[in-house]
Amino acid sequence: MVKSKNTEEKILDSAREIFMMKGFEGARMQEIADHAGINKALLHYYFRSKEKLFASIFNKILSQIGPAMLTFINEEIPLEVKIWKFVDSYLELMKKFPRMPLFIINEISINPERIIGHLNFSDFLDLRKLEKILHDEHGKGRIIAVDVKHFIVNIIGLTVFPLAAKIIIQRNLQIQNDEWHQFIEERKKVIPETIMGWLKNMD
Amino acid sequence: MVKSKNTEEKILDSAREIFMMKGFEGARMQEIADHAGINKALLHYYFRSKEKLFASIFNKILSQIGPAMLTFINEEIPLEVKIWKFVDSYLELMKKFPRMPLFIINEISINPERIIGHLNFSDFLDLRKLEKILHDEHGKGRIIAVDVKHFIVNIIGLTVFPLAAKIIIQRNLQIQNDEWHQFIEERKKVIPETIMGWLKNMD
DNA sequence: GTCTATAAAGGGATAGAC
DNA sequence: GTCTATCCCTTTATAGAC
Known about the structure:
- Two copies of one chain form a homodimer.
- Chain A is mainly α and 203 residues long.
- The first copy, chain A, has two domains: 1-48, Homeodomain-like (Arc Repressor Mutant, subunit A, Orthogonal Bundle), CATH 1.10.10.60; 59-199, Orthogonal Bundle (Tetracycline Repressor, domain 2).
- Chain A is 76% helix and 0% strand.
- Chain A has eleven helices and no strands.
- Chain A has helices spanning 7-26, 29-36, 40-47, 50-74, 79-96, 100-110, 112-115, 127-139, 148-164, 166-172, 177-199.
- At the A-B interface, helix 1, helix 6, helix 9, helix 10 and helix 11 of A face helix 1, helix 6, helix 9, helix 10 and helix 11 of B.
- The structure holds a DNA duplex (18 and 18 nucleotides).
């Protein structure tokens, strides 16, 4: 139950919470209303339908992810620092909303039509610019030649996967709740090490 | 519509298809029945409830994943070959059921209670044995010292993430459907390279 | 075993009072 | 803006004929 906020904010906060926990299909308007401390009718008064309420929070969420990728590419800093900054800012953002990565991947995969138009990372991530950076670094003999697509998938996979699969990883690797935070902190070091080890593997 | 199979098999095949596509909450018994070419009542005749039908296919699916991990650890082969074998067998298995990884991660995360008991990778993956291998290799000066947990998360993340986030990756990296297969084939080489580059980064 | 018909419950949405 | 009461369609599940 959220306090000292106007009704619309309370609804949006509760909707985000419940939708992230249960997904679109599993979420119940009644549960969202209860969580916000109001009744169902008010939800419809403010957002007309479940679909529209969902769209509202989904847009909000996606707009928060872009900035985390901006620093990755645009600043004039060494490649290694770019990677470190991306991993750090992404993992920090996800501390607030740990269910966000899985939620986004799943909702888009189940219902891509609902999302069309919101899914453009090209605003934040200029593939060609990144490709040029990798190409130049290789030209200077600093790194091996790599495909920019695998470069991106590697970094994002190493960063996002443990968050998305948190429960499975915790159970199978026997990481208790109070150790999880530490594990994620370690990844801030491990991920850049992994990527740079790969890029500098010059045998 | 599935043909030339007994009714129970038709139901299980259809249920797997629909559940994987829509998730537990999004799936409809009617849709499963239509897909199997029968009517709703028969679903209940064979499996009593949606929950039980879901449990049946979920168990079946999880039991197919274990073996892909077995080769990874038990065979007496070099570490690099182990990694290669894991990635190869896992990606091959997922060609048949591309939605499996995301489906499993999501259903377990949304409803861990329903799954308890099926989630024990320790049958296939002996952490201590793997830890010993990494420790010995490090002792021989062949690799750097790494935490076995990050080792596993790295390998699985690099392998599973692109499958789970397929649609998002395809759209943002502009990979067409007919190029996706090629992209996954490339990863069979990229992932072992990434891991080994990390492990052998001896500066 | 398989079907049609229907019960029973769930859940999104609206009407109307305050 | 916020509430209660209620509508009504959807969906799971069962009854009963064949």
